[in-house]
Amino acid sequence: MNIKFKCGMKKLTVSFALIFSYCFSFAQTPVHHKVSHLKITILSTMLAQEGVGDWGFGALVECDSTRILFDSGGRKYVVRDNAKELHVDLSKVYIAVLSHGHPDHTAGWLALRQELSAIDNNALSLTYVGSGFFNPVILPSGGRHDLRPDSAAYANSGAHVETVKNWKEIAPGVFLTGSNIPRNNPESNYPPTWKRLSQNGKIARDTVPEDMSMVISTLQGLVVLTGCGHSGTVNLVEAVLNHFPDQKIYAALGGFHLLATSDQKIKWTAIALKDAGIRYFMGAHCTGIRPVQQIMDYAGLKPNECIVGSVGATFDPAVGFIAGQLTLGTDKNAYFRK
């Protein structure tokens, strides 16, 4: 169908099909919700000016009206106890995300569900994990970390586990990468002596195939939260930018497993972060203290923009980091004790 208009002495013919096609394609362009208010509070990591440090990771993510627990610490009650000391109420947190199945990220999962559900039955009633999460880990000592009994007890409490393989939006503006992160770059960011028992009974090196991260789309840009980054930091950066081609990574927080990485690879990682638009970086848990300093230098960040993670530290894209003097020194956002 063509529509003819008179414009002075000339006739203008417009194809209705062309107009419809253009409008339809415009309507199909995905427009993601952007989180207006985001606060991430570290509840478990090695360094602590408040609470207790442990070899593990856990964080509370508050984005608009949604609250999510990301990982549950390396000791059974460390997240619970640190949350209490920080006056953080976890009983109204209904969603948990476990970045991978290692014990330093899952120790408090079942205990928190059991304790908090006595206060609110919906507390931590939904948990997202990556594909292969429940395959037992064989530790260097010969022992096994098997979460299948915990999973059964969790289900018996009326809670539900959902496996995420590909990108999934779990709340407005809050995404999980899923476990299917392309590992195109040579990053072996996982323990060299750990093994995994597959579903078919075979034992192989544990490359942590279930590893996944969280990405929050904010007004300032993308905020990436990772437990250990076993899929590789540069691999993760590339996957995020491929999924959000028109956005930049504003901040990256969590464990990045760089503690035993060469200086050359840390520089390469920092440049990738810089090229992605990074403005804030917090290296907690397995990142290592020296790598955080190197990333600050190579990425051209300031001391209050690139810090070592600590229990009680918070991040708000509109404010930056608020943390103890142990990591922020004399910065205006530093405190001795809250």
What share of the residues does DSSP label as strand, in percent?
25-35%
Structural class: alpha/beta
The main β sheet shows up as:
9 strands, mixed
CATH class: Alpha Beta
| Regions with little confidence, pLDDT below 50 for 5+ residues | 1-29
Strands of the widest sheet, in order across it, are 10-7-6-5-4-3-20-21-22
Q: What portion of residues is helical? A: 10-25%
Number of E-state strands: 22
Number of helices: 9
CATH architecture classification: 4-Layer Sandwich
Distance between termini?
69 Å
CATH homology-level superfamily: Ribonuclease Z/Hydroxyacylglutathione hydrolase-like
* Mean pLDDT level: 91
| CATH fold-level name | Metallo-beta-lactamase, Chain A
> How would you sum up the global shape?
globular
Radius of gyration: 22 Å
Number of domains: 1
Please characterize this protein's 3D structure.
With 338 residues, this protein is α/β, with parallel strands linked by helices. It has one domain (33-335): Metallo-beta-lactamase, Chain A, CATH 3.60.15. Helix content is 24%, strand content 28%. The protein is built from nine helices and 22 strands. The protein has helices at 16-28, 78-85, 103-106, 109-116, 148-156, 233-243, 263-275, 289-299, 325-328, and strands at 2-7, 10-15, 38-44, 58-63, 66-70, 95-97, 126-130, 137-138, 144-145, 160-164, 168-171, 174-176, 195-197, 203-205, 214-217, 222-226, 249-255, 280-284, 306-308, 314-316, 320-324, 334-335. The strands form four sheets. A nine-stranded mixed beta sheet has the order 10-7-6-5-4-3-20-21-22. It has a seven-stranded mixed beta sheet with strand order 11-12-15-16-17-18-19, with helices on one face. A four-stranded antiparallel beta sheet has the order 9-8-13-14, with no helix packed on it. A hairpin with a 3-residue loop joins β20 (314-316) and β21 (320-324). α7 packs across α8 (289-299). Mean pLDDT is 91; it is low at 1-29.
